[in-house]
Amino acid sequence: MIDSDRTLLRALFDAAVESAIPAPVLASYLPRPAKGRNVAVGAGKGSAAMAAAVEAAWDGGPLEGLVVTCYGHALPCSRIEIVDAAHPVPDTAGEAAARRMLDLVKDLGPDDQVIALISGGGSSLLSLPAPGLTLADKQAVNRALLACGASIAEMNCLRKHLSAVKGGRLAAAAFPAATVTLYISDVPGDDPAVIASGPTVGDTTSLADAREVLRRYGLQPGEAVMAALNDPANETPGPDDPRLSRIGGRMIAAPQISLEAAAAVAKAAGVEPVILGDALEGEARELGKVMAGIARQVRRHGQPGAAPCVLISGGETTVTLRGKGCGGRNVEFLLGLADALKGAEGISAIACDTDGVDGAAEVAGAMITPDTIARGAAIGRKLSDALEQNDGHGFFGALGDQIVTGPTLTNVNDFRAILVR
Fold this sequence. Notes:
By secondary structure, the chain is α/β, with parallel strands linked by helices. The chain has helices at 2-18, 47-57, 92-105, 122-125, 135-148, 152-161, 169-174, 207-216, 223-229, 255-268, 284-301, 329-341, 372-378, 383-388, 392-399, and strands spanning 38-43, 64-70, 80-85, 113-119, 178-184, 247-253, 272-280, 309-315, 347-353, 365-368, 402-403, 414-420.
């Protein structure tokens, strides 16, 4: 049964990714062309695919623009320029692209329109520092946030207040032009203000909130960062800022939509899907332990003869790096899950990031089966050691259980499915 379970789990993940690809759905969300200039800007792992979909569907005359995406995620476009930059730690390419983007929109008038293409990963890619800060300052803060276990909302709160473009500043720079944002959500709750740190949305967080994140995790950035976080000039535009009076937004893909697509595939295969939520957060290994308890409960106390069940969930967990591994929240989740299941029969699982990159590794995620721990031990790999070292990628790589997709050109966050027979 293991091989067929692997096939089914992979099919569920593929369906989740496919439902978030921009090309089939974006055209129906495009705004009508403006009388003046139509300028497309954007950032994120799906922004190049979104730009290509805009060009394919656009029939409103002149169109221009600039989007920034991750290295390896670009697609050819003829009217919208595509720039590659680094993620999750920003680089000079992202800084230069953000500066050019601001220059592109700052002279627009009331008859012009900005079409913002925003997807997950855009926060690191739009890396223009606030006045008085350098890119090195922002890189250091990003690395510290990634290692301390901060949530995506906490990370983005800090990023907004250290940026010249995020937290509503891009739309403010475009005013009095109208700004219509098309989103691919990768955040719990699909809050537009959190997706890519909300470059076109009024911010409800404050400098005080950003300082509190530092205090909560015991982070001690340099003097320049603290000076910026104490400077009232770096407060972000709020939702009632007049410069944000001409904004609108449309969600074209989101985690719940992807979970429902996977559930439909499970149902067609005779497996009963249960969607546990699209916004599960917390330490990845701890969530794995909780999910193991739920899976055991289903297996022990499900109705005799009932159809197999698959527990489907999404969201964005965190990994607090303590060992020498590179982390990766999906593989860390699977390590915690397998450790708690201890080879329980009839339970297999997959956990992958829908963008094809789990943490710092160019691997989407991995699978576990009831024999995962035993197969690891047979080749000298103890799962408990991998968990201690945050080395899920090393462990699953040695077993041949990694899921490698390459860039998917979209991002609706993590996908997890636990199959219980």
